[in-house]
Each structure stands twice: as structure tokens, then as C-alpha cells.
From TrEMBL:
<feature type="signal peptide">
    <location>
        <begin position="1"/>
        <end position="22"/>
    </location>
</feature>
<comment type="similarity">
    <text>Belongs to the MipA/OmpV family.</text>
</comment>
<protein>
    <submittedName>
        <fullName>Outer membrane scaffolding protein for murein synthesis (MipA/OmpV family)</fullName>
    </submittedName>
</protein>
<dbReference type="Pfam" id="PF06629">
    <property type="entry name" value="MipA"/>
</dbReference>
<dbReference type="GO" id="GO:0009279">
    <property type="term" value="C:cell outer membrane"/>
</dbReference>
<keyword id="KW-0472">Membrane</keyword>
<dbReference type="InterPro" id="IPR010583">
    <property type="entry name" value="MipA"/>
</dbReference>
<keyword id="KW-0732">Signal</keyword>
<keyword id="KW-0998">Cell outer membrane</keyword>
Length: 277
């Protein structure tokens, strides 16, 4: 019994030491940004909160919270990113030009969003993928375009073009600029079209078949405050005014609104990460 107890004690001690070393090795890979080494990555974790239209064309708002992250090599410049940028991966990346794939989550449209939607098609959430192009003609002006397509069978091509004036002032960084939104006929029909059977069941709207093209104009403004090397906060506001065929849809004129506002806030924490590869 004594031998077994000694063996068990030695085993537990060795296991504890191994666990402690493993934990120490794991935690040593994370450090404040100020302690970053040239071989490290800077990882930024974001907590996002958004108040936005419940569905495209809605006059009601819904609140959502979601995480996101980004990373860069130590020594790489911090890239400006507007709050309405999709999730981007650069294939070609230099100080004036970037291009690569882009992804964006699109929330759905459900009967619970507005009782006046009764009888209209439910639209499940979608994930849009495509390509982005970004160009910096001068150091404080950025132009960016995105073209995406959803995975749903009734999804169409959709995208936007925007220009941002970007200006750091001390610990603040300001950005503001216009936006132009567009989509093809399939996209317009998905969100703003009404079939005869839907109109008959709803009883409040009439059948409608919109075409594609420019569907909204607007602007985006944001301000970021950098508390230190690790922490920053961002607030932003976006405005869209629906135009063209989508603005004439009964979903907009009788149920929703041509004016679409989005308000958001983001808290970001950055740290150095030493990769194991």
C-alpha cells in the first residue's frame, strides 16, 4: 500500500508539473502588444453591437450582437477598415491596391419582424461571397467596391461602391464618405418583389416585380478612439435612401420606408500572439 501511494503521488506530481508546463507554454503565446516580437501576429478581437433595419426596406429596427476578429503580422501597417466592409482576405496587397475574396452575412426576413408581412415569402439568412477591390489614390482617400452573390437559390448579385475620407487626429481616427448600392433583378425580386398569390393572401399589398440596377444611395461615418496599444472603441452611423424600382415596392411604400438607418458600436482588444508553426 505504501509503495502504491508513493507511486500515485509521484504520478500526480508529474502530471501536475506537465499540466503546469503546458499551461505556461500556452499562455506564453499571448502577450500585450507592447511585448510583441517580430515573429508574432497582432490579433484583434471585436465585440460588435448594431441597431439596423429588421429587413431590407423595413421601417423597424432590430438589435444584434456578434464577435469578429482580424490579425496582421507585427510590423505590418494597421489597415483602415470601414464598419460596412465585408470580411476580406487580400490576395494582392500593397500600399495603394488590394484585391481578394470577401464574405458577408445577410440576416433574413421573418413574419415576426412585422405583422404586415403576413402572406409574403419568408427569407432565411444568407452568406454572400464575392470579390472586393480597394484603391488608395492618396494617403487619406480610400475607394472600395464589393460584388457578392448569396448561396440561396433565389439570391442574386449585390454590391456597393464607397469612398472614404480617413483622418487620424491624435488618439482619434475619423472616416466619412458616400455609398452607392446596386443589385440585379434576382436580388431585387428576393427582397422587394411580390407574387400575385402573396398579394392575395396578404390583402394589403399588390403584386410587384422590380428590376435591377442602383437601389440605394447613402453615406457612412465613423469615429474610433484608441485608449492604448490594446484597447479601442468605435462608433458609427450609416444612412441609405432607397431609389429606383425597389423604392416603389409596396414592401417599402406600404410596409417599410425608403430611409434606412444603421447605428453601431465596437469594442476592440488587441494582443500579440506567438504562432506554434
Amino acid at each position: 500500500m505504501t509503495t502504491r501511494k508513493i507511486g500515485l503521488a509521484l504520478g500526480l506530481t508529474a502530471l501536475g508539473a506537465t499540466s503546469a508546463l503546458a499551461q505556461q507554454d500556452f499562455t506564453s503565446r499571448f502577450a500585450p502588444v507592447s511585448d510583441a516580437k517580430s515573429s508574432d501576429y497582432i490579433v484583434t478581437l471585436n465585440a460588435n453591437g448594431v441597431v439596423q433595419p429588421s429587413f431590407p426596406g423595413s421601417d423597424r429596427s432590430s438589435v444584434s450582437f456578434f464577435p469578429s476578429l482580424s490579425y496582421r503580422k507585427v510590423g505590418e501597417p494597421v489597415r483602415f477598415s470601414a464598419p460596412d466592409d465585408g470580411i476580406s482576405i487580400s490576395i494582392i496587397d500593397n500600399p495603394t491596391f488590394r484585391i481578394g475574396p470577401v464574405f458577408r452575412f445577410q440576416s433574413g426576413r421573418y413574419y415576426t419582424d412585422d405583422k404586415l408581412l403576413y402572406g409574403l415569402r419568408k427569407k432565411n439568412y444568407d452568406v454572400e461571397s464575392g470579390v472586393f477591390i480597394e484603391y488608395w489614390p492618396i494617403s487619406f482617400i480610400r475607394a472600395r467596391a464589393e460584388l457578392r452573390h448569396g448561396f440561396r437559390s433565389d439570391s442574386g448579385l449585390v454590391g456597393h461602391v464607397g469612398v472614404d475620407y480617413v483622418q487620424p487626429v491624435g488618439q482619434f481616427a475619423f472616416s466619412v464618405g458616400p455609398r452607392l448600392y446596386f443589385g440585379d433583378k434576382r436580388y431585387a425580386d428576393r427582397w422587394y418583389g411580390i407574387r400575385p398569390d402573396e398579394a392575395a393572401l396578404n390583402g394589403f399589398v399588390t403584386p410587384y416585380s422590380p428590376g435591377g440596377g442602383v437601389n440605394a444611395v447613402g453615406a457612412m461615418g465613423a469615429v474610433t478612439y484608441k485608449w492604448d496599444d490594446s484597447w479601442s472603441t468605435t462608433g458609427y452611423v450609416s444612412y441609405k435612401h432607397l431609389v429606383g424600382d425597389v423604392a416603389k415596392s409596396p414592401i417599402v411604400t406600404k410596409i417599410g420606408s425608403k430611409d434606412q438607418f444603421t447605428f453601431g458600436a465596437r469594442v476592440s482588444y488587441s494582443f500579440a500572439f506567438t504562432p506554434w508553426w
